[in-house]
Amino acid sequence: MDGNGRWAKKRLMPRALGHKRGVDTVRTIARAAREMGLEALTLYAFSSENWKRPADEISDLMSLLRAFIRTELDELVRNGTRLKIIGEWQALAPDIVDMIGDALARTAHNRQTTLTIALNYGSQQEIARAAARAAAKGAITVESIEAELDTADLPPLDLIIRTSGEVRLSNFLLWQAAYAEMWFTDVLWPDFTPEHLHDALGQFATRERRFGGR
Ligand code: IPE
Ligand code: MG
């Protein structure tokens, strides 16, 4: 999810408003993905590297996270969404850790779809942690590392979408992206609609995936 800041700047608005509109998009897209029958949707909300941003912006993002959980949790519980968090979320503020713990518990038995939010997430860090755990248990193999990744219980990654014209992965799901399809769009995240998601899925459906075979 990229482009909140530029969306606000274009409108001479504070960045915080761009992030706020970005959260509205999260609501819309999470709902649309579930209605389109997607088994899993993973959103990159806050990276390990985002701590480099100014303190007031980080604080705005954390407040939006609190508000999102507070306002959305009941709907997630009701519509069969299992919430999952990847990244080192236990290092966030204690009240957020409590809210997340409660949200995970309340949605744990849901089976309709999984909404994963990457918080304080960095893929290299995730791989290093997984490799260390795998080593502690025995041999380091592709399978043993994979089994220790934060995403171990998610289906294989099919499609990565990045908005706002940037064409890079920025430490997101590097391992999991090995055979994922990628779709890049200039659309800024607050402007991203279910129609864009639909277009991306349509493109994805036309791709021939050989996974190294032929
Ligand atoms: C993405 O929007 C939102 C988060 C990192 C949470 P940005 O804040 O990166 O927006 P730009 O890149 O400045 O437009
Ligand atoms: Mg950005």
Tell me what the structure shows.
- The chain is of the alpha/beta class.
- It has one domain (4-206): Decaprenyl diphosphate synthase-like (Undecaprenyl pyrophosphate synthetase).
- The protein is built from seven helices and five strands; from the N terminus they run ααβαβαβααββα.
- It has helices at 4-10, 15-35, 55-78, 94-107, 123-137, 142-146, 194-206, and strands at residues 40-47, 81-86, 113-121, 159-162, 181-184.
- The strands form two sheets. The chain has a three-stranded parallel beta sheet, with helices on both faces.
- α1 packs across α2 (15-35).
- The two termini are 33 Å apart.
- The model has no long low-confidence stretch (mean pLDDT 98).
- The structure holds 3-methylbut-3-enyl trihydrogen diphosphate and magnesium ion.
- 3-methylbut-3-enyl trihydrogen diphosphate (IPE) binds next to α1 and β1.
